[in-house]
Amino acid sequence: MILLICVSILIYTYLGYGLIMWFLGKNRKNIPSYLEEQPEVTVVVAAYNEEQCIQNKIRNTLSLNYPQHKLKLWIVADGSDDDTVELASEFEGVKVFHQPERRGKVNAVNRVMKLVETPYAVLTDANAMLNKDAIQELLKHFSDKKVAAVSGEKKVHLEENEDAVSAGEGLYWKYESFLKRMDARTNSLVGAAGELIAVRSDLYEPVPEDTIIEDFYMTMSFCKQGFKVGYEPKAFATEKSSQDIGQELKRKIRICAGGFQSIIRLAGLLNPFKYGFLTFQYISHRVLRWTLAPIALITLLIISIIQHDSSVWHSLLFWSQIGFYSLAFLGYVLQRQKVKIKGAFVPYYFTIMNIAAIIGFSRLLFNDNLVIWEKANRKL
Question: What is the Cα–Cα distance from 192 to 335, expressed in whole angstroms?
Fold first, then answer.
């Protein structure tokens, strides 16, 4: 019985929910109309020690298809002790905020958002490059008064010869982008990635400074208040994959720890009598992936080892897992030897993701400081 429950959880989490949302959303087309006038907008870039990419980010933002007199670019570089501030200050019209004390991204963004006077703000990462029409594509969703925020699509730049990180992360984000599109079509996006988010400035409320994944918490807080979060695949932010699997693991651990923290802080969203379909989305898309799915994987493996010779079914399940984790281990070995075999990298990345969920929970449990953290290095 336990084995069947574990299998059901895994199939539903990683496949079943996607199929349900595809069925519900396939005939729905939410095509928002562009705003009658292009409003003023402030682009806020949090940039801690980003000397390697900050000038490219500024050039990218200033080259977007949006009236320059209606676009303000703010760089907040609190705590940076490299040349980020100096390099950003070379650009005329770009406002740079900096204070020597490092108190984390949440504090930095909260600090400058209080000063935003434009009706909309776009929050984006320093290492994420935007497509030309990103801002106007995001802002068109605000023609719906129920929309408090809009997320762009994250794209991972894939190398010509993909390694474990590029292949695994790229496939993950393709599937994640599909789920986001279906979520937004049927109701609301369930949390947004911080690479590119537009918000109504007057609805922004300071995020608690000890929040680990502030982008997710902020957008789900909008949903909790009865607003919706839109999704715009025509506005995308492209970034390189993590430098190596160690850096990707560090990033995933932090995200998973933040996921557990958000589940606790947004516990009210688990009430279907109050939030209805949103609760179904939240549990299916996020909560299960961060909590029961990793537990189900471990439980399934243990039971299969114990009962592998009790029936044909148990034997098949056991050897299927042995084959999968053997491919994951092969991916680990091959990426260390710089050998490129994609088939082994996807199981490897999937395994790393679930290991990160377990470690992330323990880090949160033991109150490790994940708010002020060393960012994962990306490929240059």
Answer: 30
